[in-house]
């Protein structure tokens, strides 16, 4: 396997995890790291050159770079990489707004470079398994996808609200797992923690095939929850991405003889199966796929076009909350 020279810029909470994976990724050599502070608070460098700018990092003749800087810096860093002819994976969201995301996507396309967005939930074993089973028809027609993503406020987030930081996970995974784009969204937000940005959102939406979606996301809950529920004609999948468990609740085949209940219920409770599935670290799988994409091999990456679409949906949700109107996409 060809050894690719990789760089990492952004050595914060996510940067340290990317550094750990890159340092041990077969076929890749992490040659240098960078952070605007010029510091390495989590010890990612481990003897490698520590730079303070993207320009310094580019001097190390990179094949590709992992971008884990705050969202507001995605655009200048990504454009510098595109201009230098360096492939890049950029942490989600792709950029702080749609125009910036479009500039990045266009720059990489024009340069003929591989670009990806770090929507890591796609690589969660529970959702990977759900996607495969949906493709095999295990649920039949899909009616609804509901997600809940809530927990305490992470002090590391300062430049965006809960919609662009957390809800973009749910927007991306919902569109991906169903292989359908969003066509409309309506949302309500709340500002309860005294910050400039929203810390709670409730989004309803619809995909191009008619699937109804619902997303509850906040930074105000004292417990952590990461759940996706996919309901279809044969039952429902419940994916818990904290534990990477996938459970199938089948529609029952036992006839209800109590006439009052039989008239009321559309389906009955059936068997419940929790699948035994391999549980590899999502970040490892994400980096393996991007490495393979750079090498020209078959790979499952979140493309920049898909990352751009997610930013558009997120901004439509924010606009809906501002105006009180459903936004068409």
Automatic annotation (TrEMBL):
This is Putative oxidoreductase. Residues 5-119 form the Gfo/Idh/MocA-like oxidoreductase N-terminal domain. It comes from the Bacteria. PANTHER family: BILIVERDIN REDUCTASE A. SUPFAM superfamilies: Glyceraldehyde-3-phosphate dehydrogenase-like, C-terminal domain, NAD(P)-binding Rossmann-fold domains. Pfam families: GFO_IDH_MocA (PF01408), GFO_IDH_MocA_C3 (PF22725). Residues 128-237 form the GFO/IDH/MocA-like oxidoreductase domain. It comes from Kineosphaera limosa NBRC 100340. Keywords: NAD. One of its GO terms (molecular function) is nucleotide binding.
């Amino acid at each position: 396997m060809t050894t690719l020279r990789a760089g990492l810029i952004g050595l914060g909470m996510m940067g340290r995890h990317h550094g750990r994976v890159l340092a041990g990724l077969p076929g890749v050599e992490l040659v240098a790291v960078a952070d605007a502070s010029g510091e390495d608070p989590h010890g990612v460098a481990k003897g490698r050159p520590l730079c303070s700018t993207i320009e310094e990092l580019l001097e190390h003749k990179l094949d590709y770079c992992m971008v884990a800087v705050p969202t507001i810096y995605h655009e200048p860093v990504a454009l510098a990489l595109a201009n230098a002819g360096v492939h890049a994976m950029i942490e989600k969201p792709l950029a702080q707004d749609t125009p910036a995301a479009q500039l990045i996507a266009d720059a990489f396309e024009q340069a003929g470079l591989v670009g990806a967005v770090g929507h890591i939930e796609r690589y969660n074993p529970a959702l990977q398994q759900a996607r495969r089973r949906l493709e095999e028809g295990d649920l039949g027609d899909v009616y609804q996808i509901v997600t809940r993503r809530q927990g305490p406020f992470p002090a590391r987030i300062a430049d965006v609200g809960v919609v662009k930081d957390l809800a973009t996970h749910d927007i991306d995974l919902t569109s991906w797992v169903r292989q359908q784009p969003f066509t409309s969204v309506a949302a309500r937000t709340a500002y309860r923690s005294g910050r400039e940005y929203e810390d709670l959102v409730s989004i309803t939406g619809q995909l191009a095939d008619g699937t109804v979606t619902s997303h509850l996301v906040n930074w105000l809950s004292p417990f952590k929850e990461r759940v996706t529920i996919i309901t279809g004609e044969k039952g429902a999948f419940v994916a818990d991405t904290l534990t990477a468990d996938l459970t199938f609740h089948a529609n029952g085949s036992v006839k209800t003889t109590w006439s009052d209940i039989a008239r009321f219920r559309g389906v009955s409770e059936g068997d419940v199966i929790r699948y035994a599935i391999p549980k590899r670290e999502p970040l490892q799988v994400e980096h393996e796929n991007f490495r393979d994409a750079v090498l020209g091999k078959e790979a499952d990456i979140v493309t920049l076009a898909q990352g751009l679409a997610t930013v558009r949906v997120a901004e439509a949700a924010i606009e809906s909350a501002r105006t009180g109107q459903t936004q068409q996409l």
